[in-house]
Amino acid sequence: MSATLDIRLKRANKVYHEAPIQLITSNIEVVKPGKVPGGKTEIPFEFPLQVKSNKVLYETYHGVFVNIQYTLRCDMKRSLLAKDLSKTCEFIVHCQPQKAKLQPSPVDFTITPETLQNVRERGSLPKFLIRGHLDATNCVITQPLTGELVVESSEVPIKSIELQLVRVETCGCAEGYARDATEIQNIQIAEGDVCHGLPIPIYMVFPRLFTCPTLETTNFKVEFEVNVVIVLHDDHLITENFPLKLCRV
């Protein structure tokens, strides 16, 4: 049984791969040497998850530049005339729930041409007014992200409204630090030119393997954000970004 923390650092279009950090390594003998009877044989086993020295057990997470994985390998040694058998599988580890009560911290938002950032020619943008709210930005990872969005007005017809979940991984090693944001999933919550003034529900489930409670350590950070993306028929993209903190309770 083993657990590894794999960190990759991306700089100047190059990816530097650090040697995986071993969090756990354990070997146990579940059956003494001998013969296995014919038919189906079930062998129960158990083992504690004990970390090495000052290492910390993190929750299972599959990212792009940070990967935390726990695997179990079973080896069956056979006689000289038969080939040894080996099988590896991954098992999932959850961190301990936090004891402090989670404050949901809801947020209201209004999107207009004036509220957008990183816009070069603001005067060329069509007029629009979009309001909404997220029920929480401090989120329980086992519960969906919820809220509501209303298109009050828009000079240009709307093509699509989407929710984009983003992972933000910050990694550090001998080469320095790098911060990269990559998409986890994209969900369309409305298609076509929606009715103005009609509430549109926001609902997104956090995928298990690709999210984990927000992590901040000495060598790396794993954070999450959600983008509300409105696609207009003239292919203008309107994006509003919201940082999220994921917790397990």
Descriptive report:
With 249 residues, the chain is mainly β. The chain folds into two domains: 90 residues, no CATH class; 141 residues, Immunoglobulin-like (Sandwich), CATH 2.60.40. 0% of the residues lie in helices and 51% in strands. It is built from no helices and 16 strands. The strands form three sheets. Strands 1, 2, 3, 4, 5 and 6 form a six-stranded antiparallel β-sheet that branches. Strands 9, 11, 12, 14, 15 and 16 form a six-stranded mixed β-sheet that branches. A hairpin with an 8-residue loop joins strand 5 and strand 6. It is elongated. The mean pLDDT is 88. One of its GO terms (biological process) is intracellular protein transport. InterPro entries: Arrestin-like_C, Vps26-related. Belongs to the VPS26 family. It comes from Chanos chanos (Milkfish).
What can be said about the biggest beta sheet? 6 strands, antiparallel
> Architecture of the largest domain in CATH?
Sandwich
The number of distinct structural domains comes to: 2
Shape: elongated
* Distance between the ends: 27 Å
Structural class based on helices, strands and sheet pairing: mainly beta
Instruction: Please identify the top-level CATH class of the largest domain.
Output: Mainly Beta
Mean pLDDT over the residues: 88
Unreliable sequence segments: none
Oligomer class: single chain
Determine the fraction of residues in helical runs and give it as a percent range.
under 10%
Q: Which radius of gyration do the C-alpha atoms yield?
A: 24 Å
Secondary-structure element order, as H and E?
EEEEEEEEEEEEEEEE
Number of strand elements: 16
